[in-house]
Design a protein that fits this description.
TIM Barrel; about 35% helix; DNA polymerase, domain 1; alpha/beta; ten-stranded mixed beta sheet; two-stranded parallel ribbon
Amino acid sequence: MPLVVSAAPINLYDLTRPELTALFARWEFSPVHVARLWNYLYWECVDSLAAMPELPAKVRTRLAAETRLGVLPTALETDSSDGFTRKYLLTLADAARIETVIMRFTGRVTACISSQVGCAMGCVFCATGQMGYTRHLTPGEIVAQAVHVQRALRQPDHTLCHAIRDKASAAKAMGSGARLRNVVLMGMGEPLHNYDAVMKAVDILRDPSGLALGAERITLSTVGVIPGILRLAQEKRPVNLAVSLHAATQAGRAALVPVAKKWPLDELMAACRTYSETTGRRIFYEWTLIEGKNDSAEDARAVGRLLHGLPAQVNLIPLNPTSGYAGTPTHTAAARHFQHILAHEFKLPSTVRQRRGIDIAAGCGQLAVLG
């Protein structure tokens, strides 16, 4: 059949497996080649069509003419002194840039990926919010970040544990380490502001023949976009949901999270209740601990009362420094006291976020591309 060149090459990472199958059927190529290409994309994580020798020449020729492999070039790679965290500055096809973080824990590897260039939500303590919003990412640009991390993990020199001098401890920290196990959509952007692209990316990431990330392995964090939360509930999407709370009163929340003026706290909590009742899933409520702002014993009790009766876990996150916000992180003792109140007075489970990558601005709320 004649070769017709598309004006806009298809990013292969934008395609679900059924879409790729339909494309190959239209081209009259065997489904066998779909399986092989999918394996190249998501198991071997190759970075070019030239690295797909088992595909017939006619398939590679057609792919080269009408598609592109949307690999994201690394503009900058930075390792944290903690020995477990690496940040990538990645370049998109239009020269915009985003940040992606890889974190190693004992027995698992987590990628923190972005959903937008910048963010429109404007949270006052968040570097991404401080940089403003440029555009949504496509599904393929979201997926490509996870593939980038998996490709890096396949490199024999990609240890990330260079700061650990004891080899036995380093080996334990690396764990199984060969495969990406967790993805958190907590990088740049508001995932529910880019709902359709994010959910298509989730479908691709979950495909059992590819990266095969299970329902408990993908978490998205929202500042409280109520229409998106309700849509998640209606569609019963198999992802973990984290809601950025940060204050237990409308006034307190609006001061930290400007979109609370559009989606008030009482309406947000009603949406969260609907989500949990509809899906049967708990929600992770995120609370950035800022000294003197929201870290008192009474603040802890206000959280307990607000979340009473809900299937919930509270993630306490000591504030990470950004150039645009002068707040101070809560001291460890105060964070533990906050956690103690939640546990003993309200039987509410919580964690204090382990700080990673702060020295390279890779921590929660620190990702941004400025200038």
